Amino acid sequence: MAAKKSEFGVGASIERLEDDRYLRGRGRFVADIQMPGMLDIAFVRSPVAHARIRSITKPETGGDGVFVAADLAGVSGIRADSGLRGFRSSIQPILAHDKVRHVGEPIAACVATSRARAEDLAELVTVEFDELPAVSEMTRARDADAPLLHEDWDENVFLETAVDTNFAASIASATVVIKRTYRTARQCMAPMEGRGVVAVWDNQAEQLVLHTSTQMPHIVRTGLSASLGLDHSRIRIVAPDVGGGFGYKGILLTEEVCAAWLAMKLRRPVRWIEDRREHLTGGANCREHHYEITGYAAADGRLLAVDCEAIVDSGAYSIYPFSACLEAAQVASILPGPYRMDGYRCRTWSVASNKPPILPYRGVARTGVCFAMEMLMDGLAHELGIEPWEIRQRNLAEPHQMPFTNITNKYFDSGDYPEALRRAVEAIDIAAIRRRQRVDEGGSGGRHRIGVGLSIFCEQGAHGTSVYHGWGIPMVPGFEQATARLTPDGGLEIRVGIQSHGQGLETTLAQIAYEELGIKPEAVRVVHGDTALTPYSTGTWGSRCIVMAGGAVAAAAAKLGDRIRHIAGHLLQAAPDSVILADGVARAGAGEIPLREIGRLWYLAPQHLPPDVDPGGLEVTQGYRTVRDTGTFSYACHAVTVSVDLALGDVKLLDYVIVEDGGVLINPMVVDGQVLGGAAQGIGTALYEEMRFDGTGQPMAATLADYHLPGAPEVPAIRILHMETPSPLSRFGQKGIGESGAIGPPAAIGNAVNDALRSLDARIWELPITPERVLAAVAEAEGKARIGEAA
Amino acid sequence: MKPVAFDLTTATAAPHAVALLSNVDIEAKIIAGGQSLGPMLNLRLARPGHLIDVTRAKDLRGVVDEGSALLYGAAVTHAEIEDGAVPDATGGWLQAIASRIAYRAVRNRGTMGGSLVHADPAADWVVTLTALGAVAVIAGPGGAAREEPLSSFIAGPFTTTLKPGEILTGIRLAKRTADARWGYWKFTRKVGEFAKASAAVLIDPGAGDTRVVVGAIEQPPIILPAGDAEAVIAGRLPIEEALRRALPHRPPASLVLHAVAVREALGIAGAAGFPAQDQGAA
């Protein structure tokens, strides 16, 4: 059995092993890779959102460095079909030829000895367009006169879905019914490092080696294999250090396919490094939802039913591997969240528009869903004349109901939601805020009003086959494997197919291995991000790694431990079961033997091994599956106090509390980092980030001076309070928690702003909550009040 | 996002820069900290054939004490002012202004002169130095020199009165005495962004200077007429009314932000009857 040492293992807040190289600027990112003879790619991108391409003319000088669709012989466009009935299929061309469907779509690849020269060359390519009217507003995409993006479709809809569970029967006794419209803005994910590719043909391995800033190297390999018509064995994907993903790096890019083809065609290393303008104007976007949502409640505050029509602006193409429909599929299935209700109806439309494709961003649909549902709950509370926390308290799943199956058949594995709510309400001190509001409204608040808001929600993580199969996406995750190898000097190598890009998995997986083998994390090397070195995996997404890869590492380490104990037992003349692995040694009674000695014997002196030793040796690959594949449900309650400046429309965050239950925490400090980073992004969604498009489909921001990201000064000192309800489904009781922080802020902040504006009868409904929107809401309320007085 | 190819020459002194500007081709442009020009080059919005770097011109990098005024070299950086590495004619106001320009990384390279020549209507120096009555000192071809109040030097959004071949060499600022008061307030949603509204107030009884300046209005800063400024400070004229007079073509609703800015700046300057409400103001 393994010795438990909380100093390094599960539950230890050890410093992250990878931070030494990151903090010293020694990370190796794609753009750091230099190769002799490397060429840079600059893409000619569409300046218009919707047009037929009449002609593409290469320059007379330098034209041999320009490649267009017609040059890409044998290369297929990217197809990512949903398995759900009624899905309309799109093909994303590697380079556009007949038509462009969004600004920024690549039309030609220009290669030169530097990016600047490649951009010079790109300026010389002439493209003639016949412009077409564009679809730039999702609520108009289904209009009869809307231009069709894909002409073989009958309407601009990738997929329409409908669910109805006992809806009509459940609303009969409703005494309060409110209908609301909510909207979230289109965002760019803006990781510090954008996308980037260095592609090279390796003559010796007869392999294409693609270094790419990705979250899912194995999936890129599979997608690339299909697009290039190249066997998997001819492709190696290497993800070096990756500077943030958030979902933006969970996609097969046309640029990746194009760079790979160029490397094979030119037999020279080529690279493409996305710049910020490309990211903002042409990269895949996220988050754009529109909700018409109705809540039905009984007089006692009991939630009876929710009815919702949701539109997701999926952009121009279905992207690989998540498809154009994951967002909307999630909307329909997760909207009820942790609440009990009798009836539920939801229709969704994943509409196509002349914008870049939509990608699942940290939290995926949950951020929008949480905004719509939690704003609705506050609306109901207001109608009922009760505190927002009271209506939640009355309707949340109770701990004694766990495991709780909600109306959309989500299986909540464990947790105490009312307790999380109670702690948040206490920590933010709602009673004190109510007292201050009464004083302010008495006239001493000047031009400021304060408000308090809550959001409570769950984050399904590490959900597997049954869930994703049901959502219809082309890539369905199954099990997870890891390899554990004791090295001849007693060190440990862990190999996993996921990719760590800020989550600290090089540390937390080592902590899990320590739990089984007693080898200190500093002696554990976690190898990831290289298809040549690691087991196949769908990669890092869906808050799955600490459960799935963590479970696999534990399984592989445990099996390796069995083999070490077997050898050690023989050498120490003790029963293998009595051998304890700790502090880098195998111990039985008073005897002990260093693991490096066991490693040396296995590899270099097998004559000393027991005769019945397992010839599989000190290298083990083991697979893992959770107890059931419905996912772990971490959850959180966010509570925020805001001050709204009625003259400027500005919103300041005065206090912010997050009560978070991620099950058993492997490394609480890493979890805090995940929660804080996510919350900063959620604050961006709530207050700052918006990629607007004009009526012709032109993006309205091309630099970070126009696309506003929150910086450190905009993020308040967030107080995180932990609960640790173990999951019965995972190896250590841990739950996925990587996305949670980004889910709660828009709803909590939105509710707080409306709470602050309540005395004015003003209400915001659209993200981000900019000064313009606050002032418009106040002006609208004042207008209504004037009409009311006149009447 | 890489610039078009250009030549780069480092000027050793202001006259050298002026000579280079006249001698090299017509597309030559002065670059100092590059905090505005740099992104424009990268976005290929600016395509000068030749850049003349003035950050190593010694006579543009120092501060000259002229007795009643200080003459700041145009290439003094925001960070040097923030850090107190150069004298402050105002006893600390410049330091406070500089410390809130954009981010430290920008302040390390950005220069006072560069900001004025770029003439972004929302820029901190454009607004505050107008309120402080600064004078632009300009050198031209053949040793020509002229001076012009900043209030007219900034001729429009992103436009100055600099003529071809001229460069801004310095900014003259009168020294302020201890009884002078000052307030500057800007509305930014996040640290580092350009202001959506700003105002600067100078009340210097000793020098007989009273100025209320409204900035970030997509045109050069507006100096309220002295009578109006004094009436506002004395509480005889509502800020909103003074702004309506100064900006008659703007819808009154759009003036709310600027009225807040003026009120806050007055509060910071300690004008009686204008309590500052914004806790974040400097």
UniProtKB/TrEMBL annotation, chain A:
Record keywords: Molybdenum, Oxidoreductase
Xref: InterPro entries: Ald_Oxase/Xan_DH_a/b (IPR000674), Ald_Oxase/Xan_DH_a/b_sf (IPR036856), Ald_Oxase/xanthine_DH-like (IPR016208), AldOxase/xan_DH_MoCoBD1 (IPR008274), AldOxase/xan_DH_MoCoBD2 (IPR046867), AldOxase/xan_DH_Mopterin-bd_sf (IPR037165)
A single GO molecular function term of this UniProt record: iron ion binding
Matching Pfam families: Ald_Xan_dh_C, MoCoBD_1, MoCoBD_2
SUPFAM superfamilies per the UniProt record, alphabetical: CO dehydrogenase molybdoprotein N-domain-like, Molybdenum cofactor-binding domain
Domain Aldehyde oxidase/xanthine dehydrogenase a/b hammerhead: 24-133
The protein's name in its UniProt record: Carbon monoxide dehydrogenase
Organism listed in the record: Skermanella stibiiresistens SB22
UniProtKB/TrEMBL annotation, chain B:
Keywords: FAD, Flavoprotein, Oxidoreductase
A GO molecular-function descriptor: oxidoreductase activity
TM helices/strands, residue ranges: none
One protein family per Pfam: FAD_binding_5
Tagged with keyword Oxidoreductase: yes
InterPro entries in the record: CO_DH_flav_C_dom_sf (IPR036683), Diverse_Substr_Oxidored (IPR051312), FAD-bd_PCMH (IPR016166), FAD-bd_PCMH-like_sf (IPR036318), FAD-bd_PCMH_sub1 (IPR016167), FAD-bd_PCMH_sub2 (IPR016169), Mopterin_DH_FAD-bd (IPR002346)
Domain FAD-binding PCMH-type: 1-178
Name of this chain's protein: FAD-binding PCMH-type domain-containing protein
